[in-house]
Amino acid sequence: MATIIEQIIAIDQDAQKRLDEASRFQALCTEETEKQIAEIKAQIQSETAEKLNKIRQEEQEKAQREQAEISHRSDEAFRRLQTQYEQKKDALVQDLFHRVIH
Fold it and tell me: Mean pLDDT across the stretch 33-61?
């Protein structure tokens, strides 16, 4: 009977060792998985930040080009108006003079 009890105790101790090993393995797997998740998140955040910066830079460059184009068109329109004024200035002054005097 003592040997049966000793065998039961040995089986129980072996089972406890296996449970402890399984628990350590589970903790190790959980730790490794969390580490991999953190690395993947960091990589995704880095890639996302890169893409956002690239898009932001492209949009900023596009806005600058559009602003330069608008400024150029505005300058051209102003020059045309100035040229028209210079061409018609004398006629306008004469017309105004005649209207006031007569």
Answer: 98
